[in-house]
Design brief:
Elements (H helix, E strand, L loop, with lengths): L1 E7 L27 H12 L6 E5 L3 H9 L11 E4 L5 H15 L5 E6 L7 H16 L3 E6 L10 E8 L31 E8 L4 H10 L2 E11 H11 L1 H12 L8 E2 L2 H5 L6 H6 L5 E5 L10 H7 L9 E9 L5 E12 L4 E5 L4 E5 L6 H10 L10 E4 L2 E8 L3 E8 L7 E3 L3 E9 L2 E5 L2 E5 L4 E4 L5 E4 L6 E9 L8 E4 L11
Parallel strand pairs: 1-2, 1-4, 2-3, 3-9, 5-10, 11-12, 12-13
Antiparallel strand pairs: 4-8, 5-8, 6-7, 6-8, 7-10, 13-14, 15-16, 16-17, 17-24, 18-25, 19-22, 19-24, 20-21, 20-23
Helix pairs in contact: 3-6, 3-7, 6-7
Length: about 500
């Protein structure tokens, strides 16, 4: 059985200000309105035997991810189990935990197809065909990765040197020494006349210098390491026991001490953080005795920078400018402009990336777009909220948008989804005023509980227990005005919460 495993998370710092730690790259909307995560689910469901897709993601992204999945017409949420990480970690723990879960719930012979949620692939038929090749190799005992034909000398990717062809499903005992010159890949496809299942991996190569990358592209022997993998659960665990027993032992302990063993499976923080922080490449793939690469026949991008994004999004005008949203471009060349809400005007500039999210603006030279992550580093050092959250913040119950954030007040617009409820809470340093602008809210203030209709208001004093609920079948919208001397989220004292967030007992 083929079980796709979606790895979803990461900060995506090079795509700030759209990608932020609370709303990372997998949730970014492309030009067609779909997120990268939704597109990854599309690919996974096309291949999943029985429609089962396993997702490994951060606990903070669980409800956001379920909301994305719920919008997919072909998704059965009961067949989309989740493994929830309590903190950020590398890919080896995530993949080994997924293999342990699959062995227990699907079977040791389950073939896992590891799919990062932040890749863009458009040729789904070619991807499905290559995945079947990888599955066949996995069933013959290979650990398989997918290699991408280089289109240019990229220094931001790791490379794979390809070895001898694997002509049929009969496995070789061990990878052979690196072969001589191989014919180059053509147009993303294997050389004509090559009907092999894949290639043995000659070597994994670190990110090279520009000159070395040029030689790799010219040789035809190298492909980019895509970060996608395929292997049987039992094969991966057997290899892990030999090449990285510390990783396997820590993952087994973490799996055994999971808070629960039915979806969503949430791992205990202490046991999870005891796992080595190492990638699946370093921990297993580079040490395993039988590793194959399937040279991809599909298109691929990991959209690692705004330059890459600009090459994918929108059609260029006669001067090479690409615009998404509202913009006026005058006597400018080769610019990418994205604006969610406001009009952007560019006059007499060239080779710029301009991204406006309403609460932040990025202006960068196209060739320096990789350095956007330095902006995020500075914001984090300054403890600035725009490193992590947007003006609109998603919550399990809905979302809120900050309309004003001043020293003496904070104003939000809240949207609460049908049937959802905010935590029972109080604040020590602020009072709140709620005004319903659409729908009917159920409100508790102290010991009183009542309905609040459109154009009606309620006042919540400091240190008063309160709760907001949507008892209706449609979204409700409220304006919340906070008054006090501090408006941070850490002034929320949760007493009850249906979403599993930390609660405190009354003194």
């Amino acid at each position: 059985m083929l079980v796709p495993v979606i790895l979803s998370g990461g900060a995506g710092t090079r795509l700030w200000p759209v990608s932020r730690s609370a709303y990372p790259k997998p949730f970014m909307r492309m030009g067609d309105g779909e997120s990268l995560l939704k597109k990854t689910l599309d690919r996974a469901l096309r291949l999943a035997d029985g429609g089962q897709v396993l997702t490994v993601t951060g606990r903070d992204y669980y409800f956001l991810t379920r909301d994305e999945y719920a919008q997919h017409a072909g998704a059965d949420l009961d067949k989309l189990p989740f493994l929830l990480e309590p903190a950020g970690r590398n890919t080896a723990p995530a993949v080994v935990l997924a293999a342990l879960h699959a062995r227990e719930h699907v079977g040791a012979d389950a073939v896992l197809l590891i799919l990062p949620a932040d890749h863009l692939i458009r040729d789904l038929d070619a991807f499905a065909a290559d995945a079947q090749r990888a599955k066949a190799l996995a069933n013959d005992g290979w650990l398989v990765t997918f290699g991408i034909r280089p289109t240019h000398p990229e220094t931001g990717f790791g490379y794979i040197r390809m070895g001898d062809a694997i002509a049929n499903r009969a496995p070789a005992a061990l990878p052979l020494p690196p072969s001589g010159h191989l014919p180059p890949l053509r147009g993303g496809r294997e050389a004509e006349g090559d009907h092999s299942m894949g290639r043995q991996v000659g070597a994994f190569v670190e990110k090279p210098s520009h000159e070395v990358a040029e030689s790799y592209v010219a040789s035809g022997d190298y492909v980019w390491n895509s970060g996608m993998f395929c292997f049987r659960a039992d094969t991966l665990l057997e290899v892990a026991a030999k090449v990285c027993p510390d990783v396997l032992k820590a993952a087994e302990a973490c799996h055994a001490h999971a808070i629960n063993h039915e979806s969503p499976v949430e791992f205990a923080r202490e046991a999870f953080l005891a796992q080595p922080d190492i990638s699946i490449d370093y921990a297993i793939m580079e040490r395993a005795p039988k590793v194959a690469v399937v040279p991809a026949t599909f298109d691929w991008s990991d959209i690692g920078s705004w330059k890459a994004m600009s090459d994918l999004e929108a059609e260029a005008d006669g001067d090479g400018n690409r615009v998404r949203g509202q913009a006026i471009v005058i006597e400018s060349e080769n610019c990418y402009i994205q604006s969610d809400t406001r009009m952007v005007a560019a006059v007499g500039v060239k080779d710029l990336v301009i991204v406006d999210t309403g609460d932040a603006v990025l202006v960068s030279h196209r060739e320096r777009a990789q350095q956007v992550k330095l902006v995020v580093d500075r914001l984090r050092a300054d403890n600035h909220s725009s490193a992590s959250v947007h003006q609109t913040v998603r919550r399990p119950w809905g979302s809120y948008t900050v309309l004003e954030d001043a020293d003496d007040c904070k104003v939000k617009r809240l949207t609460v989804k049908p049937g959802h409820v905010l935590s029972l809470q109080l604040h020590h340093r602020r009072s709140e005023h709620w005004t319903v602008v659409e729908g009917t809210a159920k409100v508790r203030i102290g010991e009183k509980e009542f309905l609040l209709n459109r154009n009606e208001s309620a006042y919540i004093p400091m240190n008063t227990v309160h709760r907001l609920e949507n008892p209706t079948a449609t979204d409700i919208h409220l304006i919340e005005v906070q008054c006090g001397d501090y408006f941070g989220e850490d002034d929320i004292v949760r007493l009850e919460d249906r979403y599993g967030r930390v609660v405190k007992t009354m003194p």
